[in-house]
Design goal:
The protein is an alpha+beta fold and 241 residues long. Helix content is 44%, strand content 15%. The protein has 2 domains: 113 residues, Helix Hairpins (Orthogonal Bundle); 112 residues, minor pseudopilin epsh fold, CATH 3.55.40. The chain binds manganese (II) ion.
Amino acid sequence: MNRRTFLTTAGTAAAATLLSTPTRAALAPIGLQQAPLPYAPEALEPHIDAMTMGIHHGKHHATYITKLGDALKASNLQTSNVIDLISDLSQAPEDQRMALRNNGGGHVNHTWFWKWMAPAGSGPQGPDGKLAEAIQSSFSSIENFKKLFGEAGTKRFGSGWAWLIVKPDGKLAVTSTANQDNPLMKGVVADAELGTPILGLDVWEHAYYLKYQNKRPDYIAAWWNVVNWAEVAQGYAAAKA
Ligand code: MN
């Protein structure tokens, strides 16, 4: 199945047609608007503090969207789905590619990140059903998965993300990326690490520094309390459909 990318060059309406991959088909499109946080900024306390959430969503994420808009304008591009845009930037002008990658990735990653969290105790406390079975069969146990995922976040040097992905063959994998890259970015991420993200953890210092300072492992340990496992299960089911 081929899909239009909605990447159009202003004036010519020429759209690039990209190969559809199972990687993206499962993901809801992300436009240029910023959705409000799905909970109050203080709702994740004590694990993630209200000030961090307010600045992270209201300043950091908002700035990625502003700069993405600037880069699109400078590129003479429009998009109705930033996921498609960042998954293959080969059509974008070379001098704007890095800005589109960083700010487009920043927008997409954070849009997901807010949904992958929920107030502690508001939903399932861990994976269950088919997701739990898949995690157990891929990583031998849920505890071992958490250990590997936490290590991916701890060992990521500088800023970046840890990911749980569904690979094109349907298998689960833990990966990590630098900066605002993500596992959909062909040509940026190694082919073997491409997949559909179903859980991601922001390990940029802006995500935890006010409360945890340099103690990234403490932030990661606390973050498990606010993972929205219902959302992760939904993402897994969609990626496997
Ligand atoms: Mn962030």
